[in-house]
Each structure stands twice: as structure tokens, then as C-alpha cells.
């Protein structure tokens, strides 16, 4: 596990270093201000991006509810996702999933173990979908940098799978039996197809945030290329260690868009604007859930501690 942590922090340092280098060499305040004004002057694109982003979360909430055999409401699933998004954008560590688990586990029909299981499975499904899109894009788009991206993605995938395997092998047979049963019931039949399908479509919809920014500031990029760029960027967020993944998001997206033929200065601005949009969205929905379904700071700390203790 020590080697894994060292590897993760090496990648984090490289991504942060890339972000600082980009900021040093391509940051242009006047150009950023001008492009920001251009985006704000295109309310049609902002409304479309917001609608697509909300729709992406609605599909994930639907998939989550379906996986839990519809024992919780759609609204509860949306609120859990919004809390997770909000906290991941205000705290330097990723604790959103712990709160998402704790929030849904307060529903009478769901236990903590079932909630944790569902969040882990759907997170893994997210990564599988993003990985499949990223790998397909490398082949289909014929990128000059595809080899480097491929080996980076492969190394990260192997490290992640190895960590999961090392953790799972410490669990007793009863643990495996219970979670395999939950997995089978969650993904069986038409419900499983719905969970996988809606998860896939949700990531297509989220890509409109990137594509919308690019179209609004008059750059050229196809929707398919935007889906690939968004998938690569979100997959890179597994190395998140700052509020909202600041630095890692901008680094991965800038290099990904540059691989698609957009000059680095423009790619950097697209990364800043799309990430800024997501930050603004997370704060708005965070304010909404805090007013609509408030939870206490004590509850949040309790859920984070409970998740940590269960993982040890």
C-alpha cells in the first residue's frame, strides 16, 4: 500500500506541475477575460450546458435508484449526488462519496452496507464507461499522442485494480457472498441494462459542458471529440487532491484538447471556463440541498469517520 500511495502522489505532483507550467507559459489574463465575456454573452449556450449537466445527474440518480431496487425516491438520490458534488468542490479531499452513502443510508429502506455497496459499484461503473470511451477514442480518433495516453491510462487502471484486489482479498467469504448477491440483484435483467445504459448516456450529456464552452467562444471541436476530452479529464480526477480537482482537471483537459489540435492557450482557457462552470453549478446545487434537505456538520463528520473505519 505504501508503494501505491507513493505512485499516486507522484502522478499528482506531475499533474500539478503540468498545471503550474501551463499557467506560467500560456496564462493571458486579457484573453481569459475576453473569452469569459464571450461565454457570458451567449446565454443560449449557458442554458443548454446547464440543462445537459442537470440531465446527466438526473440519469445517474435514476441509475442509482434502479440499482437499489427503487427502495428510495428519485429526489433522495438527486440530493445525495448534489451533496457529493458540492462537498468535493469545497474540500481538499474527496469526501463526497462518504456523505452520499450516509445521506442515502438515512432512508429507512437502505442499510449503510447496501448504500456503500451501491456507491462503490456505480463509481466503478463510471470508471469503466469513461475508460471505454477514452480507449475507443484513442483508436477511433487516430491521435498522435494516443500511445502515451494509452500507457498512462493502462498504468492507472492496473494500479487501481491492484489496490481493489489487495483490499478485497482481506475480506472473509461472507463479505464476498453478500456483495455478490447485491451485485447480482442490482444488475440483473432489464434493470441492469438500464443502469449501464443511463450511466453511459449521462457521460455523453456531461460532455456538452466542454463542447458548449468551445462552441460559445468560437473554437472548432466535434461532439465526439468533446466526449473523449471530457472522459479523459474526468478519469484523471481519480488523482483529485484539491477542491474540485483544481490543477488535475486543467492539466488533463489542456493536454487532451491539444492532442485534438487546439492550441495550448485556447485549450487552457476551455479547461478554466468549463471547470469554472462546474464550480458555479456545484455551489448553486449545494446551496439548494442545504436549504431543501439540510444536514449537520456533525452528521458529515460522523459519516466520513464511519466510512473510514469500514475501509480499514
TrEMBL record:
The chain crosses the membrane at residues 6-32, 44-62, 82-103, 124-143, 149-168, 268-291. It is a multi-pass membrane protein. Catalyzes the transfer of a lysyl group from L-lysyl-tRNA(Lys) to membrane-bound phosphatidylglycerol (PG), which produces lysylphosphatidylglycerol (LPG), a major component of the bacterial membrane with a positive net charge. LPG synthesis contributes to bacterial virulence as it is involved in the resistance mechanism against cationic antimicrobial peptides (CAMP) produces by the host's immune system (defensins, cathelicidins) and by the competing microorganisms. This is Phosphatidylglycerol lysyltransferase. It is found in: Cell membrane. It comes from the Bacteria. The gene is mprF. Keywords: Antibiotic resistance, Cell membrane, Lipid metabolism, Membrane, Transferase, Transmembrane, Transmembrane helix. GO terms for molecular function: phosphatidylglycerol lysyltransferase activity. PANTHER family: UPF0104 MEMBRANE PROTEIN MJ1595. One of its GO terms (biological process) is lipid metabolic process. The keyword Heme does not apply. Signal peptide: none annotated. Belongs to the LPG synthase family.
Amino acid at each position: 500500500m505504501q508503494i501505491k500511495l507513493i505512485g499516486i502522489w507522484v502522478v499528482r505532483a506531475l499533474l500539478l506541475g503540468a498545471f503550474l507550467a501551463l499557467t506560467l507559459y500560456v496564462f493571458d489574463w486579457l484573453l481569459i477575460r475576453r473569452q469569459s465575456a464571450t461565454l457570458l454573452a451567449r446565454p443560449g449556450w449557458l442554458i443548454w450546458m446547464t440543462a445537459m449537466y442537470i440531465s446527466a445527474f438526473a440519469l445517474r440518480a435514476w441509475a442509482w435508484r434502479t440499482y437499489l431496487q427503487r427502495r428510495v425516491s428519485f429526489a433522495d438520490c438527486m440530493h445525495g449526488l448534489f451533496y457529493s458534488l458540492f462537498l468535493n468542490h469545497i474540500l481538499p479531499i474527496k469526501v463526497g462519496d462518504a456523505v452520499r452513502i450516509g445521506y442515502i443510508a438515512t432512508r429507512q429502506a437502505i442499510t449503510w452496507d447496501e448504500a456503500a455497496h451501491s456507491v462503490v459499484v456505480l463509481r466503478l461503473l463510471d470508471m469503466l464507461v469513461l475508460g471505454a470511451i477514452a480507449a475507443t477514442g484513442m483508436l477511433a480518433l487516430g491521435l498522435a499522442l494516443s500511445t502515451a495516453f494509452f500507457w498512462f491510462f493502462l498504468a492507472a487502471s492496473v494500479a487501481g485494480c491492484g489496490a481493489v484486489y489487495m483490499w478485497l482479498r482481506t475480506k472473509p467469504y461472507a463479505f464476498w457472498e453478500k456483495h455478490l448477491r447485491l451485485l447480482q440483484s442490482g444488475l440483473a435483467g432489464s434493470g441492469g441494462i438500464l443502469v449501464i445504459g443511463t450511466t453511459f448516456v449521462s457521460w455523453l450529456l456531461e460532455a456538452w459542458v466542454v463542447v458548449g464552452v468551445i462552441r460559445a467562444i468560437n473554437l472548432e471541436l466535434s461532439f465526439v471529440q468533446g466526449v473523449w476530452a471530457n472522459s479523459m479529464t474526468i478519469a484523471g480526477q481519480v488523482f483529485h487532491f484539491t477542491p474540485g480537482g483544481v490543477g488535475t482537471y486543467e492539466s488533463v483537459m489542456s493536454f487532451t484538447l491539444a492532442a485534438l489540435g487546439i492550441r495550448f492557450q485556447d485549450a487552457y482557457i476551455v479547461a478554466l471556463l468549463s471547470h469554472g462552470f462546474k464550480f458555479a453549478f456545484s455551489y448553486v446545487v449545494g446551496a439548494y440541498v442545504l436549504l431543501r434537505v439540510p444536514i449537520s456538520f456533525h452528521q458529515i463528520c460522523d459519516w466520513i469517520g464511519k466510512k473510514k473505519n469500514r475501509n480499514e
